[in-house]
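Interim report, section 4.2 (structural modelling).
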Amino acid sequence: MSYPNDFLWGVSTAAAQIEGGAADDGRSPSLWDKFAAEKKVMNANRFPTACDSYHRFPRDLENLKALGVNSYRMSVSWSRVLPEGTGKLNEKGVGYYRRVFESLLEAGIKPNVTLYHWDLPQCLEERGGWANRDCIEWFGEYSEKMFRLYSDIVPYFATVNEPIATYVGYAKGSFAPGHRDEKLGNQARHNLLVAHGRAVEAFRASASPSSKIGIVIDVWKRYPKIPTEKNMEAVRDEDERNWKFYTDPVLGKGYSDYILSALSREGTLMEIGERDYSLMRQKLDFFGLNVYNRVLVDKDKSAKKRLLQGGNIQEAAGGVYHKAVYDVVKMLRGMYDLRIPILITENGKGNYVFEPRLGKTVRDNGRIEYLKGFLHWMEKANDEGLNIAGYYAWSLMDNIEWSAGTMVKYGLIRTNFRTFETAWKKSAYFYRDYIAAHRCGG
Ligand code: NOJ
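Predicted structure of the assembly:
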């Protein structure tokens, strides 16, 4: 089949992972800058410079143009535009994003902009961060400012990316800000979902009607390794905690009885305000789905696996299950009677440290196989009318893979973190050719 002309073919990045320029032009630190400064991540010294996109956006733009994408998913660094978290805008930061969005549009590339990709200003963390309900208003103010500034030139906004990361940061400690408190984690992730709703409300009141809004949630669907009763129970439990916690309230069902009673039994139930359910359940223009693989549940190993939640660990124990994209889209459509377009906002393969090279070119054949498999099942889903409206590969280039620093590489393009030169991997050529063959009804 061929894809419609307006199908979005893109690549994704996030501010904290690529920008660098951590202290430049009035930007204040985010909680990830602090986490890195405390050496709680690998290659902490790379965080302040990352891929240096803050100074080298023209390099990124050239790569995007050469790939032939018609959309670029990126995020805004809250502490670059609002160094105090709220209040006064930083004109230099604001100008940077305006230039980026305008040059993308000039090149025929539609910006798809996430407002919160895990990088809360550290000054707000010091006031309690996401565990403090005031964060809902802080985020509302920031979002509204972004809509007023940019919604005339940004056709797609996402409020938050992978809300599970906030839980990991407040309950499990392996992400910034590094707290280890279940109840705090539940409160933080709940507040984040309410903040999402608050931002959508602000969008409807202040954004240009030409712009659209959604959210990005990662779904790592559980499957039993063997369908024993124990495994089936574990599948249910892990599905509830790892992705239904987010999709249920956002897509209109409210928290499930299962999760509410599990958390209250465990003494970790968050406080839920009266208006919270209606705020979380906003009408959206699209749903952003990050899908990387499924997770096979084997009860004997489930204790270990729980430590790995957070969305960015490739669950490879059972191999890669390309059909995940088809299964999950079909499941969500049915479960929530979800009719809005679904964008695959992330899909990609991480390689640990070394990737085989021939001369300058990384021979990442495994990544090509991975992408081919997912693209095949995405096409099949659309043939069956499941209405996937866009696909973004993660990621444009190797970048800071959060706690794993530069040790895990997801890029289609290689980044030299000392010189900031980039070099195309084999997978970049593959994706360029794939887009060319499928774009505009090709
Ligand atoms: C999840 C996150 O959204 C992104 O920041 C991360 O780098 C990728 N997926 C890969 O783990």
